[in-house]
Amino acid sequence: MAVTRDMVATRAKVSSATVSRVFNNPLSVSPPLREAVLQAADELGYIPNKAAGMLRRRGTGVIAFVEMAKEGRPYYWGNLESFDWFFGRSLRGVQTAIQESSWQLRFYKVRTKKELEAIERQCDGILAYDVDSPDEVNLFSDLKVPSVLSHHLSRDSAPCVVVTDNYHGGVLQAQFLKKQGCKNPLYITGFIDSVPPHKERLEGFLSLFPNATVLETAVGGPDAIDLILDKVKTEEMAGNIDGLSAVNDLTLFELLLKSRSTLPCIGYDASPFYRLFNGPVASIDIQSGEIYRMA
Question: How many structural domains comprise the chain?
Answer without folding.
Answer: 3
